[in-house]
Amino acid sequence: MAKMWINMGPQHPMTHGLWNLRIEVDGETVTNSEPVIGYLHRGWEKMVEDRTYPQIIPMADRLCYGSSYTWSHVYCLAVEDLMELEVPERAKYIRVIADELQRIASHLMWLAAIGPDLGNLTIFLYAMRERELFMDLFQSLCGARMTYNYTRIGGVRNDTTPEWERDLVRTLDFFEKRMVEYEDLVDRNVVFRMRMEGLAPLSAADAINLGVTGPSLRGSGVDFDVRQDDPYEVYENLDWHPCVQPDCDVYARYRVRMDEMRMSVQIIRDALKKMPKGPVRVKPPRYAPEGTGMARMEDPRGESLMYVIGDGTEKPFRLKVRSPFFVTLSAAPVMVNGCKVADVPSIMGMIDVCMGETDR
Amino acid sequence: MTSIDLWGGMDALTNWLMDDVLGALFNWLGLHGLADFLMSDTLGTVIMLLLIGIFVFIVGFLVDITMIWQERKMLGRLMDRRGTMVGPLGYFQNIADGLKTFLKETIIPENADEGVFNLVPVLYIGTSVLLLGTLPLSTQWYMSNSELGVLLTFAIFCIAPFVILLGGWASNNKYTLIGGMRAAAQIISYEIPLFLAVVSVIILTGSMNYGDIVAWQQANVWLGIPLIIGFIVFFIGIIAEAERVPFDLPEAEAELVEGWGTEYGGFRFGLMMLTDYFRGYAGCAVVVLLFLGGWDGPGFIPEEIWFLLKAFIVFAVMIWVRGALPRVRTDQILSIGWKRLLPLAAINVFIAIALKALGVF
């Protein structure tokens, strides 16, 4: 068969979000590929220049519906850096807990999405079922289920209640049992392993050179985690370690995310134990000083970064977003070339696509 | 053993219809020539065969939509959801879905090869429904009782991959083309182990007639027990033959949208969906006939019920497999077929020969 170009997207079951992976196939083998993005461009960075600092928080939530909390969090961190605000200790712990809850919810959505990519719907429904629990937790924490608007410049909107903390502990206990169920379904399943092991190798050198961060980088055996290497909030006080897998293949990326969910549970438990009493919010100034603020944090998809320039008014002069998936996507041709057409969805699903943050 | 006498019943029905109703009516009207023609044996045979065909199809169709309902309901429970909910236990959802596809527009792609494109659904559906005619439900409920019944079934079974290749090609779409090519690649991987497993059955029973095979199993033992390896190989092969998960490569919806059937919409899509289950039912039926004793069972229940019960149980295992496994890749199905199933099937043939030669059966 002659070589031909196939559009995997923008209207295609493989694409989680709206993008296009053009692949050149020779029979079933992918020989060349080219990601095409920009279908979801909203001019986010320009839009926020016309909004006051607090108004941008819900906008930051909309960068990625899968992990909206982490985006409003990194925005608040950047603005706090600009305004030189000190956040109360309790708020920091609550933020970490919410961060890790969001990480679990986001990873569960990823786990759900790889099921249909590999051709099995059971894991999709199982993961979505447990994600519902974390949505419920967020709902009782801040009233919203997907775009939370919970974090504030200088703290969080409201304190947690004892009932919420009780529910949280119960949910985590329940969730750990369900994690075993996922591993029974996926890890102990020969066909799942057959589809994932040894697939799409991405060496540590390649991953670093292409700027891949997050679970995909740790799946290549690089021990890098912003939470560890540039700690923000209270991560250095907590008992945890980054999850690294040395195998560089799709299965390693899968294992990293599964281990991270367990690690997140451990972090939340530890943070609940160490969380002090006290206020959760300080009042931020209305006008930011002239200068710059920068914050980076470990998003479920990798390293997210926001850089904000203040010009003394109530609106930012410029806000730059470094989206983890935008950078990770540049590694797609390296991973996809040479594999089979059937593996393209599983490879792309395994790096956890989120187009909202990529196109902005 | 009780069973329903299809041929005898249809003969009586035809005689009553042609002689006592129509013949008597036209005789009363004075049209004696027409009445003689209606009462002739030749026409009676034709009408009887037609009636048998219709009855076999109706039963097959009912089993088919019941299997779709079984799959949707059971898969739903496996996935911790409810499955279909329309009507009693969700049974009417299929009917609602089927009626919906009637209302859809038939779209033929502009650049498609229109003749072949239109012919493919006819061939795919036709050959799959034809399978029902080769499968007996009991000693007396059958449409054809050929001496080469097993061969006939598989000959008809094997037409579909070729039709799929044609359909994928004629649609003039890159996804459908890859899907069609996959069907061709898939057939060479599972057909040979599948036939070797059938060969072991034929060696032991000495017949290609379903009735004889089942009679042998009633007299001796269900073939799934001595030929357990062959049974497993055959079951895996028949899942691939029916194109069900994990071997539904030609319609891999993750990467190929809807695979070879991407361009077929509306009622054609509905009928093809239905046809997939005809093939699933035929696959289950062959498994039951060759390895699970066919209609063998305690006599207080009619043979047909035993047969269908076993077919539904085999289908339940297929649903279970679908709930647990993801789709394998094209190169992996080839390696499974050639490196795993083929040696196992060969070993199974040796076992069958040994059993026969040593005079165990």
Descriptive notes:
Chain A is an alpha+beta fold and 360 residues long. Chain A has one domain: Orthogonal Bundle (Cytochrome-c3 Hydrogenase, chain B), CATH 1.10.645.10. Helices cover 48% and strands 14% of the residues of chain A. Chain A has helices spanning 44-47, 53-61, 68-83, 89-118, 122-142, 162-186, 190-196, 204-209, 215-218, 226-229, 250-274, 324-328, 332-336, 344-350, 355-359; strands at residues 4-8, 20-26, 29-36, 151-152, 155-156, 290-299, 302-311, 316-322. In chain A, the strands form 3 sheets. Chain A has a 3-stranded antiparallel sheet. Chain A has a 3-stranded antiparallel sheet with strand order 6-7-8. In chain A, α4 runs antiparallel to α5, α4 runs antiparallel to α11 (250-274) and α5 (122-142) packs antiparallel against α6. The longest helix of chain A has 30 residues, at 89-118. The two termini of chain B are 24 Å apart. Chain B has one domain (67-357). The longest helix of chain B has 38 residues, at 41-78. Helix content of chain B is 70%, strand content 0%. With 361 residues, chain B is mainly α. Chains A and B meet through β1, α4, α5, α7 and α14 of A and α8 and α13 of B.
Task: Quickly list its features.
heterodimer, A: alpha+beta, Cytochrome-c3 Hydrogenase, chain B, three-stranded antiparallel beta sheet, B: mainly alpha, 70% helix, 0% strand
What would you say about this model in short?
Chain A is α+β, with helices and mostly antiparallel strands and 360 residues long.
| Outline of chain B | globular
Structural class by SSE content of chain A: alpha+beta
Poorly predicted ranges of chain A: none
- The percent range for strand residues of chain B is under 5%
CATH level 1 class label of chain A: Mainly Alpha
- The CATH homologous superfamily name of chain A equals Cytochrome-c3 Hydrogenase, chain B
CATH architectural name of chain A? Orthogonal Bundle
Number of separate helices of chain B: 13
Question: What does the main sheet of chain A amount to?
Answer: 3 strands, antiparallel
Largest interface: A-B, 35 and 30 residues
> Based on helices, strands and strand pairing, what is the structural class of chain B?
mainly alpha
Low-confidence stretches of chain B: none
Distance between the termini of chain B: 24 Å
Separation, N- and C-terminal Cα atoms of chain A:
39 Å
- Total individual domains of chain A: 1
By DSSP (H or I, 4+ residues per run), the number of helices of chain A equals 15
Radius of gyration of chain A: 20 Å
Query: How many structural domains of chain B?
Result: 1
How many beta-strand runs of chain A? 8
